[in-house]
Amino acid sequence: MTPDSGWLAILRQRLESRLRQAQVYVRANQYHLLARLRIWGGRLVFWGCGIVVGLAAVLFALLSDGAAERFAHAAALYPWMPFIVTPLAGAALLWATRTWFPGAQGSGIPQVIAEMKRPPSGPWRPLVSLRIAFGKIMLGVAAVGAGFSFGREGPTVQVGASLMAAAGRFMPATLRIHRQHLLVAGGAAGIAAAFNAPLAGIVFAIEELSRSVESRMSGVVITAIVLAGVIAQYFLGNDNYFGRVVVFGESSELMYTILVCAVVTGFAGGLFARMLLISVIGWHGRLARFRGAHPYWFVVFCGLLLASLGWVTGGVIWGSGFAETKSLLSGQADLPWYYGPAKFVATVVSYLTGLPGGIFAPSLSIGAGIGQDLVPLLAGQAFPTTIVVLCMVGFLAAATQAPITAFIIVMEMVDGYSLVIGLMATALIASAVSRMVSKPLYATLAEHMIRQQSPADSK
């Protein structure tokens, strides 16, 4: 017997001993190990769904941007084209929404909030599902490609919540993740991926979506949100949503600028939210009766209005407004003074149609347009880009009445960390002014949707 064979025998004996010990441990703890395996399997499904939400947001972004660019290019070549495409496409999309994708109308955020308050029993028309998610993306892209003033960020919230809710059926009960938490995680992951701002997604989950559930977010939920943001950054790059914007301003001079921007955008954003609420709840008059009796002809009418407004303004009101806002922030081009008011009107008209589409990106572009109009008034007080950024956060905070989410979204999008105090102050003041003009937009719409689900209200 050689020394080598002796060492091999000892090694074999030790390995066999370890294997027997492992087999004994597994047999003694098989139920515990199986439970742990199921928990980790559920976590992998949860995190994998976060990656899927990020991919869906990227697909939505690329399709929307491409559709908007093609429409703008075609309208520049054939100025008569919007007068045909926008009204006819609007009527067709409304028919498709009502026929095949009920529940996909509107922004998507109120739908998720309403779904989180879904009663345990009784009739309920689903507001989140894979069918709705598919329709939201396809119809949303088509609406933007037809010239309607919509964004994709709000719809991405409903898409993310739908995907995460669908993944819940594959998660073990031992993971103890309630359906409300799945909706919060999916919606917040959608915001994080849509804006390429993971921190904004977490804050949005706490401030806007978690009002009716625990505000405490577990590590597994936050990981899903971050994964969605990482996927968006992998495909769209590490640049901020609007690139890098240099913002400066002395604090003593900036306080006056902040106050003016906050009050103006607070009132304008509150009026914007009030008009959107009236269009859904409590709109009376001849035009309202016409919309109720002839919804498709009403969409044709709105499409003709948008085509006319786009023709008068040179096409700046079509789409989400991303390109126009980026040009204002970069100082590459000056838009006409009426851009902000015209975009305001175009977004309200688009919302009246009931087509799938969000208001986040249009709100930012309206705020940027207001900021451009305030630059001459505040000359010498702050740099033009500072005023534009402050008005963007002010209008978004006023329209949504979610000030923390608004200032973090804008801060991450423009890399405005040096102006964080100014952004926060503007958002808080604008939101307070908006509350004097309008009720909270998303929460009020969600309550209306819940009432519509009641059989007593449907009679």
From TrEMBL:
* Keyword Ion transport annotated: yes
Query: What is the first-listed, main subcellular location in coarse terms?
Result: membrane
InterPro entries registered for this protein in UniProt: Cl-channel_core (IPR014743), ClC (IPR001807), ClC-type_chloride_channel (IPR050368)
Membrane-crossing residues? 44-63, 75-96, 128-150, 181-206, 218-236, 256-283, 295-318, 338-361, 382-410, 416-433
Highest taxon, organism lineage: Bacteria
A Pfam family of this chain: Voltage_CLC
The way this protein sits in the membrane is described as: Multi-pass membrane protein
Record's keyword annotation contains Membrane: yes
Which keywords label this protein?
Chloride, Chloride channel, Ion channel, Ion transport, Membrane, Transmembrane, Transmembrane helix, Transport
| Compartment(s) | Membrane
Which named protein is this? Chloride channel protein
